[in-house]
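# step 3/5: fold
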Amino acid sequence: MSKAEQTISPELQTLITTSVTAAVVAMAKEMRKPPEPTPQEQDDLQTKQEERRAMADGKQQKANERWFQEHGCQHKHSGPLGGTHCVYVQDNGIPQSPGFVLCMRCQGRFRPDEPLMRRLDPTAIFDAVKYNTLMADCQQNGAEILG
């Protein structure tokens, strides 16, 4: 064996292969990492997160309002004189519509369950029994939407 020739033992060969493989994998992971966001990108991200949070809060608030309209509000005055917070409103421009009952306290719109009105007013509360009950309590019929 000459001085220029050297042999590598199998254990040393395995150690070198493992070390090189680990180094290549670590370098590949570093290369795949996205760059650190700039201050402008961080501000944009924070703004988007605040918008999402506000949107979620708005959805929760609408859900709370809807629950109050359906279950929390009695739609009647308290006290010995009684009375109702509701008024009847006729839809202008829709002759086949029976109109709706609007509670002035909770702003709930109660309609009988009709497919046409489900398309035209999807946020209303569709309950024929509740509509009939509130309609019977309304003192003033024939109010119209102005405008």
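# step 4/5: annotate
The first helix runs from residue 10 to 32.
# step 5/5: archive (pending)
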